[in-house]
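batch_manifest entry 22 of 60
target: DegT/DnrJ/EryC1/StrS family aminotransferase
source organism: Amycolatopsis alba DSM 44262
requested by: lab member K.T.
priority: normal
notes from requester: please return tokens only, no post-processing; we will run our own comparison against the previous entry in this batch. if the run fails, retry once and flag.
--- input ---
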Amino acid sequence: MTTQRPVRQAADLAMFGGGRAVPRELRIKAWPVVTEQDEQAVQRVLRSGRFTSASSGEQEIAGLEREWAEYVGTEHCVAVSNGTTALSIALSAAGVGPGDEVIVPALSFIGSAIAPLHLMAVPVFVDIDPVTFNLDPAALDAAITGRTKAIVVVHLHGLPAELDRITAIADRHGIAVIEDAAQAHGARYRGRAVGSFGALNTFSLNVSKNLATCGEGGLITTDDADLATKATMLRQFGELIPAHGERSYVAHLLGWNCKPNAIQAAFTRSRLKRFPAEAGIREDNVGRLLERLAEYPGFLLPEVPPDRTHAWHILRFRVNPAEFGLADEFAGPLRAVVQRALRAEGVPAAPYQLQPLPAQRVFDGIKAFRAEDFPATLRVLDDSFALQKAHLHPESGQLLARYADAFEKVWRQRDGLAAYATTAAYKPHWERASEIADEEWAAAFPQR
Ligand SMILES: *Cc1c(COP(=O)(O)O)cnc(C)c1O
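--- output ---
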């Protein structure tokens, strides 16, 4: 795509040399917020000399597990080293093993799909609902076979998936539901927190997430005492580690070594005290942004069905070509032009995922990727862009108001941008992703 020929009536857009809607000095505030209390919590651990879940008498990890279970409303919580290992451990504890099929949505973060693959289970990808961006229950039902052992239910961007319909389908077939709530801490479905619906459920504490630690971490929640014990064994070599006293070194199960770290647990406990208040402020800030954007019908805003709440981890916006006076076939090119115009104004609009998960090279040889199996995922990847991080900080209100100004500016210039979209060269993300894969590989391994 080139910009040498600015469309005249759109000349006030920053993309064509006009001023920015978002002043440069208005920066995205660092996430996670680190307070003096957080620092003290970390120092407490450094002075204690107890650094992992295997340290005799360690308190912070057990404390975080207790507090998160209480927050989610489950009997048990097991902390591990990150959200991806949390998912592998949850699947393994649920009995998933080599050759079993595990259903995974076609639009998610790669961790959702490699977790089963590490168990030598086969990820079976299912298309999404283009409005909620979550697993389409009808497509899920059609994908179940005699070998399906579990469903990874991702609450993408923070919106709970269709849990009632999905659990009903799973129950009918005797399949385990595992919620991947890495993006949805605190979101509720029919009054109940996510992470309390599946046999085991997982969260990530990665620095980018709504409940972040100072590094990496993961949490597994369950109501089942035996599954909690198995998850605890699987995080450390399949051993039963006593809270006090001698370790036997007997390995009962094929475990990993992915213990949680006490410093990170203490940091997260400290943050957890502020978490409900922060989530409330975020709800207000995002609510105000969406209220403004609702005035510009060319943007399709994230929808929240009345029976659930959104954790607002990521904001995904689709463009509506009809409102720009364009035919449907220009959805992708229009999105590309709008995204570019917003970025020039100072809004960090960017894709979240370039391709459906099954198109990732790591799954080559498991099943050929067929685009026609994932029309909703492809359409959403093509016609939407995401905002990440900027809205997580409680003091993001002013920044988001300027973002809304940028959307307004872009919307006012819709005719010029629409005309531009019909002539600019265009390549969908997934084609670019394939080229990137080749380029990166060739650069890393030049001899081959
Ligand atoms: C972040 C994320 C994960 C993985 O969590 P890590 O802690 O980064 O391993 C898994 N699933 C989803 C949907 C995520 O967003």
